[in-house]
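Forgive a beginner's question, but would it be possible to get a protein, spelled out as residues, together with the matching structure tokens, please?
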Amino acid sequence: MEFEKPRRRFFSQSLSWAGLLGVAASSSAAAPPPSAPGFTSGLSQLFIQREGRRRRTSSTNPTGKNADRVNLEPGGTTVLADIKTAGCIRHIWLTTRNPEPDYLRRIVLRAYWDGEQQASIESPVGDFFGVGHARVSNYWSLPLNMITGGSVQAQSRAAMNCFFPMPFSRGARLTIQSDSKEATGVYFYVDYEEYESLPAYALRLHAQWRRQNPTPPSLAVTDHNIKSADVSELVNLDGKQNYVILEANGKGQYVGCNLSIDHINPITDFSWFGEGDDMIFIDGDTRPTLNGTGTEDYFCAAFGYPSGQVSTPYHGISLAGPTEGPDSYSGKWTMFRYHIEDPVQFQKSIRVTIEHGHANVHADDYSSVAYWYQAEPHEPFPALLPVEKRLPISDVDSLRQFWKTR
């Protein structure tokens, strides 16, 4: 039939776009087409030959003995990887051991691409891998996870994994720096692929930690005469006082965040810390380009967080406080949303924000890690907070402040 040739052409083109022409029915395509080195990925593409060479740096003991760690001294820096070729980091496994409370906020992970002087990744270790407040938790997502439990969890120890691809054209340098008063044992793998060259279109991964403690409230919520009905009437259309998760200039795509909240300032008759809308401003828009409907909604939940802790590939709650009883929604929480299937593109700039309570009514401890890809160069990050301003509020003080308002 006459439509057969156009139809074959369409399917041939479709398969080529998908990188699968080499397995098409056509006998003239005996081998897969050229593709970007190593950029095929995922279960459905495991049968396609990947270009490149697999490499690893690790803390393995060069003597062959069992002490497979690097000792990070107080105030010191350990280099996890110093790569001098084009390539892409595919996996980081890391675990640490330190007796000091809150040490996961004292240890900072940094990454530098292609000889840059300003880090493209800068975050306390625990937060980078998806759990805030210097805690560990047993949770998973597609790009990040932690594995822990029992007495190990009580000691803030966990296996931490990252699967965000991290490409580079001339080299990569990953470090861990300590602001701890105790020595830290660091165990790690950095698994990467080495290429002859990197395509010009490959963006670089960036990750940035921020904290605001406390967030400035729009009402004196310590006034017990203020009720949730009063708060619901407040209006915030421009997002100027929102908590800022990310501000970046250039061209790229935002791929998600984790957000940590210590809820110390509830409304008298409504202890839920949410109802704050996400507002994302793209390419200079003065009103939100993307406007959400509530904190739990952005993180793909509903009706507060009745599930407590929950893990899914793209969203979840990696650390949860109580959801029932008189102290419901008190304490320390971390939630995550990764835009793996729906990255937020920007051509000139992006500003990712969220209200701290409806119309920014809450004075809480907010911190976050934003993850995004962009073309270099990037603007220098705001200065990382000094260690004393990175440490979490104690659980006792957090609950005391919660009940003072509640």
Remarks:
- Confidence is low (pLDDT under 50) at residues 1-34.
- The radius of gyration is 23 Å.
